[in-house]
Amino acid sequence: MWNIDHHTADVRLTITAGTLSELFADAVRALTAVMEPEGSTSRNDAAFAVRLDAADSTALLVDFLNEALTASHIHRVAFTGVDFQSFVPTKLAATLIGQKVRGFGEDVKSVTYHGARVTFGEGGWAVTLVLDI
Asked: Which domains does the chain possess?
């Protein structure tokens, strides 16, 4: 589940999930929703492989989303799914899955580290992210 809060120069996402891998997958879907994909150009899935490691789960999530964002812009793909081949809190190998699109209605420039912190509590995993638009 995610919530999107638009501001003048950024968008704040609050994402919660039962597992850490679900948090990452929901974050990709939330990022795609903010980007406002414009019309699919193919019935076939598009896929993009990602392999990352980071100091902690917050840095891993931000890096992962920036990889998804870059691939979305370069290949014009709206990613809506993630297939994790391996996943630990500081390292992952995954395939982003989506559809080719004509473009995007919102120009997201980056996912920032500003205020980002992946946490685990009674409700499961949570993070608030700021997208630079």
From this structure: 2-132 (3.55.10.10)
